[in-house]
Amino acid sequence: MFNVLTEGKRMNIVKKALAIAAMVLASFSASASLINVGGVVWDPDHASDLSGVSGVIYQEIDLGTGALSGYGRVTSLNGEGSASLCPSCELTFHFGGYTPSLVDSALSADTEYAGGWMKFWVDDSPDAPEFDALDLTALNTGSDGGNNALWLELAGHTIGGTETTFVGGTNLAGFPDGFGALDVVGGLAMGNIDTDSIFLPNQTITDIVFGSTFTNFGVILGVDDVPMKLWGTGSADFQGQSIPEPATLGIFGLALIALAFGVRNRKA
Q1: CB-CB contact of 126 with 89 (8 Å)
Q2: Is the model's pLDDT at 106 over the cut of 70?
Q3: Cα angle vertex 70, ends 66, 72, to 5°?
Q4: Could you tell me the pTM of the whole model?
Q5: HSE of 246 in the Cβ direction (CA atoms, 13 Å)?
Q6: CA 134 – CA 27 distance, rounded (Å)
Q7: Can you tell me the distance from the alpha carbon of 29 to that of 16, in angstroms, rounded to the nearest whole number?
Q8: What is the DSSP string of 152-176?
Q9: Which of 18, 184, 214, 215 has its CA 20 to 30 A from that of 235?
Q10: Higher-confidence residue: 8 or 68?
Q11: Does pLDDT of 149 surpass 90?
């Protein structure tokens, strides 16, 4: 009789635990409609999940090395403009480290680049222009000497050949464009965006894919008016997936494991 009663109590404990778990999950689902990381807000239930646009990008090509670098501001996230994606801040970025591949040989007029990195910062004192890329600077889009939080850090992911992480070409309108992929390696939003959820044609998996187009161009002259760099302004979009509040899910999972062990120990 004692064992039967004890077993019944155990079952009650398990049932209560499951009921609590269901309520917590229901509450979590209701409150997880929006993600807020460092002031940047987006909806993981959006049709395209993590889909962003930078309407203003400034890029330079070093004519000596062929390396690409530049900076910009994110102007839309999941269809929401700046006022919604970062209500009291701005999300800016720098990129660089893209150099023409010395290993992969292009089979067309496209240029294949190796390496590459990108860093996003949250600036609580917005000062980067949202509409004119020529008013962007390395200062108003960067870390501001460490004052701006590193929101996301990414490294180039191989999309073809043995080292190609970015392919630059020309679109049907005759403007330079490009496509690349990036892996999350750090930043405040790393836990939400490091998903390895995008499958590429080369049978690898990455976190972010992006495309860019440039429509305005110029030349930076050096000594004796010798061209040193080419510059261009344009726009880009990026696509990824996100995880709602990964820390909360982890804590909840650990709690369930602890509960399971507790019930098991009582039974033993």
Answers
A1: yes
A2: no
A3: 155
A4: 0.79
A5: 12
A6: 46
A7: 20
A8: EEEEE---BTTTEEEEEEE-TTS-E
A9: 184
A10: 68
A11: yes
Element (H, E) at 85: helix 82-85
Which token pair is 31? 């409150």
87 alpha carbon, distance to own chain's centre: 19
Sequence-distant (6+) residues with CB within 8 A of 264 are none
Region 21-25 average pLDDT: 48
- Give residue 267's pLDDT band: very low, low, confident or very high (50, 70, 90): low
Measured from the Cβ of residue 264, the count of other Cβ atoms closer than 10 Å reads 10
With contact defined as beta carbons under 8 Å apart, do 236 and 210 qualify?
A: yes
Distances (CA, A) of 112 to 102, 104, 136, 178, 234: 9, 7, 27, 10, 20
Closest CA to 130 of 181, 179, 89: 89
Residue 254's nearest CA partner among 262, 243, 265 is: 262
Own/partner pairs for 199-203, CB < 8 Å, 24+ apart? 200/157, 200/159, 201/159, 201/160, 202/158, 202/159, 202/160
**Residues in a beta bridge with 41:** 36
Q: In degrees rounded to 5, what are phi and psi of residue 102?
A: -95, -5
Q: What φ, ψ does residue 143 adopt, rounded to 5°?
A: -80, -10
- Contact between 142 and 94 (Cβ < 8 Å): yes
∠ CA(74), CA(49), CA(180), 5° rounding? 60
Residue entry with tokens 């070093």: 62
Residue in 238, 255, 211, 245 with CA at minimum distance from that of residue 32: 245
Give the mean pLDDT of the chain. Answer: 84
Q: Are 206 and 181 in contact (CB under 8 A)?
A: yes
CA separation for the pair 39, 78 (Å, rounded): 15
246-267 and 2-31 helices, crossing angle to 10°: 180
